[in-house]
Design brief:
Helix content is about 50%, strand content about 0%. With about 400 residues, it is mainly alpha-helical. It folds into 2 domains: about 220 residues, no CATH class; about 120 residues, no CATH class. It has a two-stranded antiparallel ribbon with strand order 1-2. A hairpin with a 2-residue loop joins strand 1 and strand 2. Helix 2 crosses helix 4, helix 8 runs parallel beside helix 11 and helix 13 packs antiparallel against helix 14. The longest helix is centred in the N-terminal third of the chain and has 20 residues. The radius of gyration is 21 Å and the shape is globular.
Length: about 400
């Protein structure tokens, strides 16, 4: 049985000082090179690099300049992730220039927010009449989740409330759109992320509606009839990506079963571990034994049957996904960086629930191998997938 005393709590980052010969150099590299480099990349100011257009999209959505949307449908998340990373860096060591850059970026994000609280540059610029019509493909709630995480990190780092206010207005609006009532959308996003973000927002605001909304998204996933199939049919069986469109693969989005009945890691690996993280978070806060039991099963399957020695998960590039138990090829492995980061999140939440060494071991395995290998030592080159065996000059390596 779960008890109120089971869950441990992380120490606030402000109370942690890391003075380690290995990790200190990475902290300095990220502060002095990676964050400034990515700031310039978001502003399309790096020669020879494909333009991001991320900041330009926000400027257009805010009415500060004219133009068209460019980039992926989830391009907004790059700005949100930069803001979150910058907030963590400010927590560790204050930097006036970075603080000013962050404030300017937040001003831009706030200017792009619509009067009703909606915030998404793709739909604001390109398809304003199609909000929430393709949750399967278009990452609206995923982008919202990353902006919420950025807002929480920034508030914790600085005490400033502007971005937190943006996030709360957006979350309040989302809470009116989604839910069990008549006239609301009875669905969820194709890429999990907002579930864990809303729990973080609840942590800093103590606003119960955010916790309830996260719980709704988790509880609704996997119910019949399948939401993504119904949504696809309402769109005339069209897809954002594929033409001709195929019926949505609900297992790919982990919506094939209610979350408490899931036992095996399936589908897109990043989506999966983001959801498992939220499930563990929710189990801790609601004392939901069935949800925690599902987390234990999903952990055991993912870690003991579908994880590489490097802490990588997701063994195929087809859908960036899990395949079957013990199918772990070395040459065609995908092992996306984001999936290992999500696995670390999941492990950290499980460790908070139960002080078992295997959770910490997996955190370290994924961090020191798959995640650390995602960035070159110059802080300006990055790697998404991690094959365990490759070819160099025609010879096996």
């Amino acid at each position: 049985m779960m008890t109120q005393t089971v869950r441990s709590h992380a120490i606030p980052l402000q109370q942690v000082k890391l003075d380690d010969p290995f990790w200190s150099r990475y902290i300095v590299l990220i502060r002095d090179v990676v964050i400034p480099y990515q700031y310039e990349a978001l502003h399309d100011r790096i020669a020879g690099v494909e333009p991001s257009h991320s900041v330009a999209n926000f400027r257009i959505a805010a009415g500060l300049e004219e133009g068209e949307f460019h980039g992926f449908v989830f391009q907004d998340s790059d700005v949100a992730k930069w803001l979150e990373a910058a907030a963590y860096s400010l927590t560790i060591a204050y930097d006036r220039k970075l603080d000013e850059q962050v404030d300017a970026m937040i001003d831009l994000v706030a200017a792009a927010q619509q009067p009703d609280g909606y915030l998404n540059t793709y739909f604001t610029i390109k398809e304003p009449d199609k909000r929430w019509t393709n949750l399967t493909d278009c990452h609206e709630l995923y982008c919202a989740g990353h902006m919420i995480e950025a807002a929480v990190a920034h508030f914790r780092a600085t005490g400033k409330r502007k971005l937190l206010g943006v996030a709360c207005r957006f979350a309040d609006y989302i809470d009116t759109v989604f839910g069990p009532e008549d006239g609301q959308i009875h669905g969820y996003d194709g890429h999990q992320e907002i579930e864990l973000a809303l729990i973080k927002l609840y942590e800093v605001t103590k606003e119960q509606r955010y916790l309830r909304l996260s719980q709704y998204f988790l509880d609704e996933r996997g119910r019949e009839p399948a939401f993504f199939v119904m949504e696809w049919e309402r769109r005339g069986k069209s897809s954002f990506y594929a033409s001709p469109s195929r019926r949505p693969d609900i297992a790919y989005h982990q919506s094939h079963l209610p979350v408490r009945e899931q036992r095996v890691g399936v589908g897109h690996s990043v989506r999966a571990v983001y959801m498992y993280t939220a499930m563990a978070d929710m189990a801790a806060r609601t004392q939901d034994e069935a949800l925690l039991e599902a987390c234990r099963h999903l952990w055991n399957n993912t870690v003991h049957k579908q994880m590489y020695i490097t802490g990588g998960i997701g063994s195929t590039h087809h859908g960036e996904a899990f395949t079957t138990d013990y199918d772990l090829p070395n040459d065609t492995v995908y092992a996306e960086t984001c999936a290992s980061i999500g696995l670390i999140f999941f492990a950290q939440r499980m460790l908070q629930l139960s002080p078992r060494s295997e959770y910490a071991d997996v955190m370290e395995r994924a961090l020191y191998n798959n995640v650390l290998g995602s960035m070159a030592q110059d802080g300006q080159h990055f790697f998404l997938c991690k094959p365990a065996r490759g070819l160099a000059d025609g010879m096996p390596s």
